[in-house]
Amino acid sequence: MNATTDYLPRRSVLYLPASNARAIEKARGLAADVVILDLEDAVAPDAKDQAREAAVAAVAEGGFAAREVAIRANGLDTEWGARDLEAIAGSTADAALVPKIGTPDDISRYNAALANAHPGMQLWAMIETCRAVGNLDALAAMAATTRLSLWVLGLNDLAKEMRAQATPDRAVFQPILSLAVCAARANDVTVIDGVCNEFRDLEVFRAEAEQGALFGFDGKSLIHPAQVEVCNRVFSPSDDEVAWARAVIAAFASPENAGKGAIQVEGKMAELLHLEQARRTLAMAQHKD
Predict the structure, then answer these.
(1) What's residue 1's pLDDT?
(2) Cβ density class 17-54: b for 16+ within 10 Å, e for less
């Protein structure tokens, strides 16, 4: 990926129940970068079929502007999963998000279920099981041979399986957060942080989003529209970061620095790796507002 031309903002990834037509209509006017129409956790068993039809219809209707729209399916091991994947494969959605993967074979099964989907449809996967945590590198490597392109962490399900205590600093999960980011980066997979369950106190949300940005996530998944604006701000470069990026790019473009791998910029050492980071920062800044 060329960071300068191909950066795709995925700062804010908003879940919406596919069965809630009013919420979907509202989402068309929100500043979320990605909308996920949920057929899994947010939909009661007796509403699954209706939600599936509603999700496909909403995608077909459009109106989401430039934002990506994904549909989260129920697992293939449930009574709804196969029908979900068949419907998603026949839709114009940008991606199918699949839950509770554990092994590369799981990725292969979901990839096969999308065999008849349009060429641009991506496979996104939830990282929310203990088995997945033990297979992060192998799972991410599947991006080379399948539609897999993005992970979303699901810490609520992971906490339940681990029997772990969730705390505001997410101390229990911090090693997993780092490992997930490293595995994703090694295989050019976008990685999205898990949801913050506190949607009434935006300062609590902000702190968790800032932690995710510190760990290197591309963005964060959200459960309420009120979180979108804060999330976009946290995962966008600051004015100081943009100014530094411009200075680095200008310095490396100067004839006197031609061919150099390390130079001095405003009293600081800058290497070619900083030049690449600077280009990405400016690409991100184009979506800041």
Answers:
(1) 41
(2) bbbbeebbeebeebbbbbbbbbbbebbeeebbeebbeb
DSSP annotation of 189 reads -
DSSP 259: T
Query: What pLDDT is attached to residue 103?
Result: 98
Domains of the chain: 12-234 (3.20.20.60), 239-285 (no CATH)
| Cα 89 to Cα 272: distance, rounded to the nearest angstrom | 42
Closest C-alpha to 176, from 189, 159, 188: 159
Residue 106 DSSP code: H
pTM score, whole prediction = 0.91
pLDDT computed for residue 276 by the predictor: 86
Q: Check residue 143 and report its DSSP letter.
A: G
Q: With contact defined as beta carbons under 8 Å apart, do 85 and 93 qualify?
A: no
Q: Tally the residues of the chain.
A: 289
220-232 confidence digits (pLDDT tens): 999 999 999 999 9
What residues contact residue 109 under an 8 Å CB cut-off, 6+ apart?
76
Residues of the chain with pLDDT under 70: 1-6, 288-289
Indicate the burial class of 97 (C-beta count within 10 angstroms; 0-12, 13-18, 19 or more): buried
Return the closest-CA partner of residue 151 out of 214, 100, 88: 100
Given CA atoms 272, 276, 279, 281 in this order, what sign does their dihedral have?
A: negative
Supply the DSSP symbol for 94: S
